[in-house]
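re: ur question from earlier - yeah i can do the single chain one, its not a big deal. heres the input i used so u can compare w yours
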Amino acid sequence: MNQNELKDLAVKYSFQVFTLALLLFFSIKLWGTDSWQTPSLVGFTFTLFFYVIDGWVWYWVASRHKDFLSSFFTGTSGLRFLLSLAVLGIYYLVAGKAGMMTFLLVFVVYYIVTLAHHSIFFSRVSNRL
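and the output i got, formated as tokens:
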């Protein structure tokens, strides 16, 4: 694949992540209770920042260092998990024990859905490289 095709894939991935996060956000806003709104906003923000940056870093690695892609995917998984734990810890420090279970459940929905999307998207892309 040439750089333009890789760049198109990074744009496509970023757009899909944005659409998926927006769909989750509005679904939770529509069907969730008021206590779900803050966790949903945090999950939406985390998803956008992490996965859009992840898509562009993938583009950089895939266009310059294809031999490091497996290390990139391993590092991405670890970083995603550690940042998620950090977000959970910060929320616990700010909000306390009261709404932690609701936050955890809503945040895990974002985490699992975007994890599945990430895995499916990049497994298909990696087979084409």
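The CA atoms of residues 70 and 126 lie 10 Å apart. not sure if urs matches, ping me
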